[in-house]
Amino acid sequence: MAKGDDIQSRLTTLAVKVMDLCESLPKTVASSTISGQLVRSASAAASNYAEARGAESRNDFIHKLGVTFKELNETEVWLHMIAEKKLVGEKELQPILAECSSLCRIIAASRTTASRGSTLDRPGRTSTRP
User: Which pTM was predicted?
Assistant: First the structure.
């Protein structure tokens, strides 16, 4: 298994679970809006992480991890809205929300680790490290 395969798999599984969740939402205007945004943000997190893994430089990697993190944060917000509106049961929603939160922490930590010594942290300097 290549480095990052486990995280990629978890992000993809999260996106699929979110899609399944969205298909179970009641057919209302609010649910429709939330559902569309939620599917986009969850799937974007998985695809942006794939892009990060193929980054052209360390700075590109860090940037794409940042985008992945933003998409996961957005996903988490939409999930909280579903919880507050009680559109699905807590039993169904809680594992998805927990996994999203866990992935947020992992991506944030990865970005912090990758940023150490990066030119993003030191404007005006260039790094020869990938």
Answer: 0.86
Angle (CA) 44-67-39 rounded to 5° is 20
Distance in angstroms (rounded) separating the CA atoms of residues 86 and 46: 26
What single-letter amino acid sits at 10? Answer: R
Q: What is the pLDDT of residues 48-93, one digit of tens each?
A: 999 999 999 999 999 999 999 999 999 999 999 999 999 999 999 9
Give the CA diameter of the chain. 53
Of the CA atoms within 13 Å of residue 107, those in its CB half-sphere come to: 30
Contacts by 50-56, CB closer than 8 A, 24 or more apart: 50/8, 53/4, 53/8
Report CA-CA distances (Å) from 125 to 45, 59, 66, 70.
Answer: 30, 12, 21, 26
Domains by residue range for the chain, with CATH: 5-115 (1.20.1440.60)
